[in-house]
Structures are given as C-alpha cells and as structure tokens.
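hey so i finally got around to running the thing on that chain from the lab meeting. sorry it took forever, my laptop kept dying and i had to restart like 3 times. anyway pasting the input first so we r on the same page abt which one it is
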Amino acid sequence: MIRALSSSLSLRLLGIFVVTATLVIVILVSLFTRGLSAQWVRSIRPHLVQYVQYIQEDLGTPPDPARADTLARRLPVDIHIYRDDHLVHATTGRLLDLDNINFEPVAKRWRKRSSPDAENNQNNRSLPLPPNLVPYASKASRGDRQRILRITSGDYTIYFDLREPRPRHGRFSRFNDELLLALALLALVLGASYLLIRRQLSPIRQIQKGVGIMSEGNLGHRIDCSGNSDLDQLSNSIDAMASRLQDMLDAKRQLLIAISHELRSPITRARINTELLPDSRQRERLLEDLSDMERMIRDIMESEQLQSRHSVLNREQLDLAELFDEELQHIAPDATLRLEKGANFQINGDAARLRILLRNLVLNAQQHGKSEDGDVQLDVTLKDAGDQLTLIIEDQGRGIGKEHLSEISAPFYRPDASRSRETGGFGLGLTLARLIAEAHGGSLSILSDPENRQGTRVVVNLPR
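ok and heres what got predicted. didnt touch it at all, straight out
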C-alpha cells in the first residue's frame, strides 16, 4: 500500500484532497463548536430555562405521574419524580444512577412573560428565579453523552433525562442504516474522484511508456496524445523532439555511409598502386593498413545499415548448425561446434549477417582469449532452447574487467587505451555482432569475472 501511494500520482493527489478536505472540516467544526458554545450561553440556555418552566407548569404541583407519562410520550424526554430521595414515579424502566452524576446550575434569572404591549415595561426585565425553580444540568464527562436537568418543587425533586433512552420506531436502526449509506456514498465519491484523476493523468502513463520505447533506440515511436491539456502538449513536444533527433541521426548515418562509400575508391586505387611497388617491409605494412581501412569501412557501413529504420534482413529458412559449422571451417579450423543430439536448429534468419556475427565473435575470442602460455582454447556451443537458439562462445583468456563490461559492445570502445594494433582491432566487432542479434529480435550478453575465473563467455539468443 505504501509503495502504491509513493509511486501512483493519482493516489497521492487523492490523498492530498482527502487530507485537505479533512482539515477544512476540522476547522469548520471547531469554529462551529465555538460559536455554538457562545450561542448556548447567550441564547439556548435561556430557552432551556423557559422549557423547564413550561414542563414544570404542565406537571402541576405536586407533580402528576399521569401527566408525566403523557409528556414523556409527546416529548423526547424521560421524567423521574423523587420525594425525599425516594422514587415516586418514572416514565422509563431504566433508573438514574444519581450517585455518579454531578450537577451544576444552568441559570438563576428568568424573563417574566408579559403582554406584547408591555414589551418595554419594567416588569419585562430578567428577574431572579425562585430557589426551587433553579435548573441544574449534569456535567458532561469524557464519553458521557447524558443531558439531565434537575429542578425542585416543594418536597419533590424532578429529573428530566433528555437523552434518547431506547429505540423509538426503529430510530437507532435507521441511524445505522444512514451511517452505512453515508460511508457507501463517501466511498463512491472517493472512487469517482480517483477515476477522474486517473483519467486526467492518463497522458503521463502514455508519456512514460513512449519515452521508455524511445530510450531503447526506437525514435520512430510516437506518443500521439490527442487533446489540449498541458500533458497532451508535453507529449506532443516529446514527439516533435524525437522526430528532430531521428532526422538528425538519419542525416548523420547517411553522411557516414556516403563518406565510407566514397572512401572505397581511393583506397582501392591506393591498394593497386601499393601492389605495384617492389617487395619490401613498407609495402607489406601499407597493404595491412589498407586492409584494416577496408574492413573498418565495411563494418561501419554494415552497422549503420542495421541501425537504420529502413534496414531489411534477407530472411530465409536456415539450418544454423550447418551454417555455423561451415563458417568455423574457414575462420577457426581447430574449433569444433558442439551440438545437442537430436536438437532442431532451424531458424528464419539472414545467412550473410549470421556468418558475420559468428566470424566477429570467434575472431574477437581468438584475439583476446589467449591463455597465459599463448594458446587459444575456444569452445563454441549451439543449444536448442525451445522457442530460440542459443550460441555460446567461451575462451580461457584474461577476461574483461567489470568496469568495461557495460561499454564493451559500444562502437569503437576498447579497454586498451593505447589502441595498438597488437591488442586488437577498431572496436566494431562486438558492436556489429550485437546489432545483428538485435536485428533478428535476439540479444547478446557478455559475462566475465577475471577475479574469480579465467575467460569470457559471450551468449547470443536468437528467436526462431
């Protein structure tokens, strides 16, 4: 529940509304209570004195039990008549616990009734009540909701219990029903408020989902929120930003491909002219450099084409075990492809690019996976994992430090800062292999922990 409140903006806003409404109600109730207390002193208490006087007159002197029963049936009050501390009559079967009730005087003055014509007469002023008619009210204690008035009339003491003593015509039952109805309506209002808030904030969820898709590299995705609210305008701004970024990246990619393509011609001419030179160490080094440049240009063009939204795979039904075994014979004759017996290695993929994937991974393992004595121990395994095929290439080299694992498949990234020819290529082999795997809907992961074990394991998952 706490996690939901911390992560859901709708629930947090609803909580703010509930807390605000509660505080407003508390303030209003406090002000109303203070105002009612003042009104009790100025207005209600004098009427209560007058009310007691009327009941006293109706009961007669001495108090008539029959008239008390009549009044109890007509009014929400129970009457208890005592004489010399002995109960004479009660309109209810529940007696008062007089030993645990404390009383205080309500008023000691009363307004004498007179004719309207004598409203301003001197006799209309507040006059002292006779001692026997001074009403006393029970003190309210914590948890006590009794309202009892006491007056004396000669030898008689009369108690008026203003509390509802028993259910009358199912009133308590109706109160419980009304309370349940109020709670149900409150829950309905809160539920409706939550749904309205959630509907108003629905663009946030669409924006979050869309930004997540864009962050994975799919800049062609659009949030496409229709509306004129601030959140809708925010989503449209994000769509416009993604569109501009996509155009910039496409322009950069096309420029890079064009430059790489244009470089092929002068490199080819340079190679021809170099081959015409007499045999020498310089000639061999020039040819090696030109070969590296050609391979780098080829890899750049291939990687950029795979990242393009217009890239197309030439898919066909292949036997991946047969394809990889044939490729291994050319690039690593000493390596053996391990296969599960009776497994199905059929896949729908691009044969040329899958060859590039295997070639780059194997050549990379041969280059960096040498053991301490200089030998290359290479294990290539192909497994049938049901709805996908898994290629595992493992060497026994020094491994890759943890600080490099997250960036090792980035373009042109190499752990060796010197970037010498002896320690590796251009940092495009793993990048191109990862892009080919992702273009087929799969993934490439690299596992290495040189502190605990030797070697590096590359795992490629390819959906069928």
